[in-house]
Structure formats: structure tokens, C-alpha cells
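Query structure, 184 C-alpha cells:
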């Protein structure tokens, strides 16, 4: 089971759960100094910005917030603005009986309003789906729309293959969120 992830423009790793058990796992493994993000609404992944030498910059938090919003139910619902909460691992708690993947938050450090937006391109040598600002080279920009995920994945794979980038529809299906798309 692979987690969602991307590298920010500041070269910090952001890891996100794909389901409740992955969300449970990544929050448990978050270190002091890391930042945890979650949308204000249910149906959001937990995203962890992994601190480098105890530091997390504002741009990485913004990119992680866009990623978190884009992989939440907000994308599928077509929401144009999403509030994302930022907190530290020590601000979370887990009580007996709380469902898997659910955590309480004692203190939210920051709230950020972002617009869901993703692109597929390269960060160094790695193909990733992330906020456009995190990429060195952008090949496909994604927006919310009416195109079904499977059709979008097929079209994206064809675009990338024409550019001589190895990509299958199945690989793209793993990279992009659930919901409808527009391709730019």
C-alpha cells in the first residue's frame, strides 16, 4: 500500500493517506517539527509536511494545503475555496473508541484558504501530481471539471506518451484524485 506523496518547491516531503488506516498510520508516525494538515470538513486526507532540520517553510505549507484540499472530497464536490487547518503532532489526540483515521485536535496553529489545483510534471527526476508551484516542469494542468477520472487518466497518459514520458493509464489513476477533471 503506497501513500500519496510529493516533494515541495523547497524540497520537503509531503505524505498523505489514501484511506483511514493510512491516515491513522501517518499521524502516529509524525515527528515533532512536522506539520499536519487536514481540511475543515470530513473526507480529507491527513497530510504531513516532513520537517527538515526542524524547519517547515510557509511555501511548503501552502503547497501541502493545496494538495490536501485537492485530494479531499472538495475536489469531487467542485468547491473553489477550501479551508485547511495546520497543526503540530503534539496538538493531536486519540481517545479510545475513536474510529480508525480519526484524530482530535487540541489546537489549530493556522487556517489557510486555498483553491484546489494540481498539475502533473517533474520534480527533479520524479513524475508527480502536485500543486503546480512544486514542479520544475509542468506537462498537464488539472482543474475540477466534468471529465470522469478514468477518461482523464487515459487522456493524460496519451499526452505524456506523446512527450516520450513513460506513463500508463493505471499509473495516472494512482496519481490523481477522485472526481471530475478539466485538462489544460
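Result returned for the query:
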Amino acid at each position: 500500500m503506497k501513500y500519496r506523496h510529493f516533494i515541495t518547491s523547497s524540497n520537503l516531503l509531503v505524505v498523505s493517506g489514501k484511506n483511514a488506516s493510512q491516515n491513522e498510520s501517518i499521524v502516529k508516525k509524525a515527528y515533532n517539527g512536522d506539520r499536519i494538515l487536514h481540511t475543515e470538513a470530513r473526507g480529507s486526507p491527513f497530510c504531513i509536511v516532513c520537517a527538515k532540520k526542524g524547519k517547515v517553510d510557509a511555501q511548503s505549507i501552502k503547497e501541502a494545503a493545496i494538495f490536501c484540499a485537492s485530494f479531499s472530497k472538495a475536489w469531487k464536490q467542485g468547491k473553489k475555496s477550501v479551508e485547511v487547518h495546520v497543526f503540530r503532532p503534539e496538538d493531536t489526540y486519540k481517545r479510545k473508541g475513536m474510529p480508525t483515521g480519526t484524530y482530535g485536535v487540541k489546537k489549530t496553529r493556522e487556517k489557510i484558504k486555498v483553491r484546489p489545483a494540481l498539475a502533473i510534471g517533474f520534480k527533479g527526476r520524479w513524475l508527480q501530481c502536485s500543486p503546480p508551484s512544486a514542479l520544475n516542469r509542468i506537462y498537464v494542468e488539472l482543474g475540477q471539471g466534468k471529465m470522469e477520472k478514468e477518461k482523464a487518466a487515459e487522456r493524460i497518459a496519451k499526452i505524456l506518451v506523446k512527450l516520450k514520458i513513460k506513463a500508463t493509464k493505471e499509473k495516472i489513476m494512482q496519481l490523481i484524485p477522485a472526481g471530475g477533471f478539466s485538462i489544460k
